[in-house]
Amino acid sequence: MTDVGAEVPWRRLDGRMLVVAPMQHVVRLLPLLVILLFTGRGDPVRLWITLGITVALVVLGLVRWKTTRYRITPDRVELHSGWVRRQRRSVPRDRLRTVDVTSTLLHRVFGLGVLHVRGASHASADHHGLKLDAVSVAEAGRLRRELLQSSPAPGGVGGRTPGPDQAADAPGSVDSPGAPGAPGEVLSGDGRRGDHRHSRVLSVLRWPWIRFAPLTTSALAGTGVLIAAVWNVVSELGVRPRDLPFAADFEQRVLGAAIWLTVGFLALALLVVAVLGALLMFTERWWGYRLTRDDEGTLRVHRGLLTRRSLSVAGNRLRGVLVSEPLLLRAGRGAQTRVLATGLGRGSQGGALQPPASRSETHALAALVAGEPVERSTLAPLRRHPRRALWRRLTRAVGPALVVCAAGWTVASTVAGWSWLGPLTTALAALAVPLALDRYRNLGHLLTDRHLVTRWGGLHRRTVVLERSGVIGWRLRQSVFQRRVGLVTVEAVTAAGDGGYRVTDVTAADGVALAAAVTPSVLADLRRSAPPGAEEAPGDLAAQCAGRGPQERLDHR
């Protein structure tokens, strides 16, 4: 039998990488090169070291281009690379999950893009995915279409194949058709490149969303990393802040001011820098943002100013949506929508479908992607959990807080100058009560005809809408403390997202009934394998799985 893969020719990366690859390394090593040049004080050795590093980078780029080959066979995507350390990477096409295209500013100048092909997340490291860095923009688009079209016929968003007008008629539409690029507009593919599909715009960037940027921890953390990097470069160059012309006068003013005024000024300055950094990072990440869905159900996210990013998720890989609400973002009445797709985890741009936006727009987009009305998805009235779950949250929040409070008052009464620690820990203990109440209010779940909806979290509230067909198993856990009050944590296992989403602190009967309603065969096998025995306590998980304990009525819609 003839090997079909052997007939497919190998291809090389774009020749322009001979220029781009060395320039990329030079940019990364720019701080080191600057330090070598400006601290050498005319030393020719430093100059020769800098020149040698540059030549080595050019040679490495040439070797990398010469030794890297790839091809796409009917069954696999293969990549061979390396000279000293050879690598042979291969991803089966039937295990492909996402295809991303990113283009840094340097890549865009030369008309190139980096193609990321990712397989199933549970595959081994060598088969999880591969990266083609880099190919032409036209080649990246053609490869992305070829790889995504090779999948089986998509079931569409929410398990249904969307028609050309489905997005406009779907419940919870974000906006109405309007100006070019507005939600609802139909875009046509490039027929000259073989793309005759139509895409409907689901969401575009709205600049009022930038007000949520300072409320996200990722933007603040990124600003801190950037400030630390600049500080390290300045330190390596030998520049001392005290040597600046205005440093002496500023130091005298700070030392002469009251301590509270100094602390307040520094805190305000840090806050201003963090806010400005968050606004700049939001602009770079989400510039030109657009979310589309084509007539085959594939979702595509385009965004980025300096680095253009494109995420494509085939419609038959979608398993649900997640609405993320960290505490600061929730306080500003904002949220963010993420997609749950098989093989799509944190490494593939986090599955973000939208920048942080207003709560109403976020839930509307989540319902649109899930194919359900808002009141049947992320804003559905969920089934409340037992009052015993409230007491568990109160004891888990107040107990440690009281221990810290006692330790704080002990230190305040015995150590001079620490009298402020007692009132501070008392305030923290008082905040534990509303935090526990909020965590209980956020608990809930609902089972619809097509989805499992679950919500949990206080400092970071999450609402998940997971397709029932995407649940491949269950993890039922019951700690010693949960068993005493008859509660259990049920986690729906899926190949999408984080791999599992939990329903926390429900009664043992409700937890087992929920699992049995979604996947009856799993619980039936468990009950058949359970040995007969004496009657167990009603809240015991083993008894409920075996079907021997009394079952409460479970009314799921």
Automatic annotation (TrEMBL):
The lineage of its organism: Bacteria, Bacillati, Actinomycetota, Actinomycetes, Pseudonocardiales. It comes from the Bacteria. This is PH domain-containing protein. It comes from Pseudonocardia benzenivorans. Keywords: Membrane, Transmembrane, Transmembrane helix. The keyword Isomerase does not apply. Residues 65-146, 440-513 form the YdbS-like PH domain. The keyword DNA repair does not apply. The chain crosses the membrane at residues 18-39, 45-63, 212-234, 254-282, 394-412. Residues 148-195, 528-557 are annotated as: Disordered.
